[in-house]
Amino acid sequence: MTPKYRLIENYRGSKNYVNKYFQFISVIFPSISFSEWYEKGFWTDKYIPVSLLNDDRIVSSASIALMDIIINDNKYKAAQIGAVGTLPEYRNQGLSRQLMEHILDRYKEKVDFFFLYANDMVLNFYPKFGLRNVKENIFISESIPSREKSGVRKLNITKSEDYSLLLDLLQNRKPITKIFGAENYSFITMWHILNLYRENIFYLEEVNAIFVKKESGDTLHILEIFFTELFELEKALPKIIESDSIKQIKFYFPPDQLNYQFQKRVEEDTGLFILGNIDLVNKHFRFPTTAIT
């Protein structure tokens, strides 16, 4: 007998379905959690799951995040598709295709374009819906400033003062890039911090900025910076380097807002797919790390 499926969406207000979603996520993405993010109030009406149920169990799901996007200093409305998956025993039945078709049809008149980040296993899936693969860039500096005794401080978000500082900066931050960037995405940033970067957020008081960074071997990775006023990043770098062994800095954002010097720009296939008429031709960009769903 062919299973019967029922589509539900935008069920943030239903504790019953929210718990079913958490159960589904724990199977599909076992290393991540949505529960703390939800309990702290960051699941807003901009994050919309679209799910298929069989016997009142979520068996396949996708989500959209409604976003304010900046491209070449112009503003757009976009839907970022994410968290696409199907329980193993329900795969190869076209359920993800059904969800994709529903999302694209339902929101095509509400947004200017769609985009998503795909993993290596499904790179051939999304072009079937008209999405095109677009390469991004990483920016590398091999000119390392002398490390200074830092004023940078690692934040502990279990402490109320550090948590409040983080939330305040997120609420008032400026875009880190306007080539392909975003605004008003704190609800996504907090998912990243709670799941991935809790140990990687550092505050530099003199520029009132939080750096999402990590050092690995001889490389400093600066994933993103939250700031309320533009500042001279080159002058701040010596204060955030912790190890004397750093020989290169990788910036995961272009230098159009916080100017810095780099020696190499490397094109990467990050799994970015876009559907819509937007101009990123010959643009050297990287979408903000903590804006990705």
Describe this structure in words.
By secondary structure, the protein is α+β, with helices and mostly antiparallel strands. Helices cover 22% and strands 32% of the residues. The strands form 2 sheets. Strands 1, 2, 3, 4, 5, 6, 9 and 15 form an 8-stranded mixed beta sheet that branches. β2 (47-54) and β3 (57-71) form a beta hairpin. It is globular and about 65 Å long. One of its GO terms (molecular function) is acyltransferase activity, transferring groups other than amino-acyl groups.
If you average the pLDDT, what whole number results?
96
**Helical segment tally?**
6
CATH architecture of the largest domain: 3-Layer(aba) Sandwich
Beginning-to-end CA distance, first to last residue: 36 Å
Task: Give, in order, the helices and strands.
Answer: EHHEEEHEEEEHEHEEEHEEE
CATH class of the largest domain: Alpha Beta
| Share of β-strand residues | 25-35%
What is the CATH superfamily classification of the largest domain? Gcn5-related N-acetyltransferase (GNAT)
Low-pLDDT sequence parts: none
Q: Sum up the overall morphology in one term.
A: globular
| Tally of domains | 2
